[in-house]
Amino acid sequence: MGILSEKLSSVKPSQTKAMTERAASLRAEGKQVITLSQGEPDFQTPDRICQAAIEAIRAGHTKYTAVAGIQSLRKAVIAKFQRENSLNFTLDQVTVGCGAKQLLFNALLASLDEGDEVVFPTPCWVSYPEIVKLAGGVPAPVETRVENGFIMTPDDLRSAITDKTKWLMLNSPSNPTGAVYSREDLEDLAAVLRDYPDVWVLSDDIYEHLVYGDTEFCTMAEIAPDLASRTLTVNGVSKSYAMTGWRVGYAGGPAELIKAMNTVQGQSTSHTCSIAQHAAVAALNGDQSFIREFRDAFKKRRDQVVGLLNQIPGLSCKAPDGAFYVFAECQGLLGTRAPSGKVLATDMDFALYLMEEAGVAVVPGSGFLADGFIRISYASSEEELANACAAISNAVSRLSRTQGAA
């Protein structure tokens, strides 16, 4: 009998982490690699947030805290939800975890029985189907379409719901596509959900502040207050505040579910880092103007990358409305032959070719359950992005058509 569980045998490692680690390995060998595979802002955490952490250490806030988080942070979360999303929670309706990812895991582990289904649109974040499987559930991916802006339609949702459906997981702005669900989109989905009172909504809002132009961010519990009693709203400080390594996420929802999530967390990590919690208080309560500066910089980089990629034969993409990723279609390059003689049959082959020949790390779309794409993070400097796109262009120009390839 082997040591690994049958459950784990069906779970795949994160392709985003795998490509980033491969890039680090190549750099350790002395090779130049530009890493555009990781969803991490290149900005430094704002100084006032770092100072709050230093002050917390000096004040002796280095002991255990409540599993759900320190009260001052939960109050800051409550204030944030009310201020920005018109959502009203009490202390027992919010919780803090070691990043938004842990809160997603806690919620699913606390609520799924074997065979329960979780619906989510694809392309999706790489961890969604794997977390569902680890929690004992069954992933129920729903394919969306490029021509529809990668948005799940009401008909898509209705067709996916069965008598085993427990959750709808919705990530807006989306990783990897940058798609943002409009107010009308959410109202249409809410209309479907009203016909299925046993289906809960998990709203993953981690990229909330990273929307561009006239795009409006909305969240389900705000748009459909009558669904709030079966909606969990998850967010965190990682992306908007450049605090990925601090590992602080937060969630608001029905007290019964939050209590169950705290039970799961209490038997795993306990609370998140006490020092990071104090830094998060400063992040949520303090001046928010730097977020606009981050967003303006991301928009400029987005436009730069979209423009450069669309000049490369075989690649095409639209400007995303949110997050900091470009999801570029590479179907036109599949079936081509690399200078080594290898045929690039899949998006993984193409991604590995870019890694090894162009020195650029991207993530294949298959990792997001969408074959024929690559995800490129533009959370890097304009100079680095320009160099990366030039290297990609050069690498693509060295590909040749195989006999019979389109």
Automatic annotation (TrEMBL):
Its EC number is 2.6.1.-. InterPro entries: Aminotransferase_I/II_large, AspAT/PAT-like, NHTrfase_class1_PyrdxlP-BS, PyrdxlP-dep_Trfase, PyrdxlP-dep_Trfase_major, PyrdxlP-dep_Trfase_small. The keyword Glycoprotein does not apply. Residues 32-392 form the Aminotransferase class I/classII large domain. Residues 1-20 are annotated as: Disordered. Gene3D superfamilies: Aspartate Aminotransferase, domain 1, Type I PLP-dependent aspartate aminotransferase-like (Major domain). Residues 7-18 have a biased composition (Polar residues). It comes from the Bacteria. Transmembrane segments: none annotated. It catalyses: L-aspartate + 2-oxoglutarate = oxaloacetate + L-glutamate. One of its GO terms (biological process) is amino acid metabolic process. Keywords: Aminotransferase, Pyridoxal phosphate, Transferase. Its cofactor is pyridoxal 5'-phosphate. It is an enzyme of class 2 (transferase). One of its GO terms (molecular function) is L-aspartate:2-oxoglutarate aminotransferase activity. Homodimer. Belongs to the class-I pyridoxal-phosphate-dependent aminotransferase family. This is Aminotransferase. It comes from Roseibium aggregatum.
